[in-house]
Amino acid sequence: MLARADIESSDSLLAEGRELLARERRMLAAGALGDAEALARDKTAFLARLESAWPGLERVAALREGLTGLIEDARRNERLLHAVRDGFAAARRRIEALEATRAGAVAYARDGSRITSPADACGRTKCA
């Protein structure tokens, strides 16, 4: 049987884990990625405390419900991280496409004549 102090310590650790994941979620939703390094350090320290608090498998059974919630929160953040990654990749591709257009797009009318674009005034290189 778990002692009351063990349960309170476990509850405290789970609350800390939930708060770290909530902090990460707020950071991702706000696009405030400047705090990502500090958050990563805090999460690493939390994991070390969590691992050191584990005296045996009995505690795992007692904390299953709390851990399930923690895992669900982590998975939700993982989906946000993937969305951020995919958004950055899409933005990068769009910027590259726009830069390629600035270098001078070539288009032709039905009669085969070349359609000029504003980039033509700059020649074959990018406009300043």
Spatial arrangement of strands, main beta sheet: 1-2
- The oligomeric state is single chain
Mean pLDDT rating:
79
The H-and-E topology, N to C, reads as HHHEE
Low-confidence stretches: none
Helix content: over 70%
Report, as a whole number of angstroms, the end-to-end distance: 73 Å
Rg on CA atoms, Å = 26 Å
Describe the sheet with the most strands: 2 strands, antiparallel
Tell me, briefly, the overall form.
rod-shaped
* DSSP, total strands: 2
Structural class: mainly alpha
Number of helices: 3
The fraction of residues in strands falls at: under 5%
Overview of this protein structure:
The protein has a two-stranded antiparallel ribbon. It is rod-shaped. The longest helix has 46 residues. The protein has 128 residues and is mainly alpha-helical. Strand 1 and strand 2 form a beta hairpin. The chain has three helices and two strands, in the order H-H-H-E-E.
Summary, kept brief:
This protein has 128 residues and is mainly alpha-helical. It contains three helices and two strands; from the N terminus they run αααββ.
How are the SSEs ordered, and which strands pair?
Layout: H1 4-30, H2 36-52, H3 57-102, E1 107-108, E2 114-115
Antiparallel strand pairs: 1-2
Kindly list the characteristics that best describe this protein:
128 residues; mainly alpha; two-stranded antiparallel sheet; 3 helices
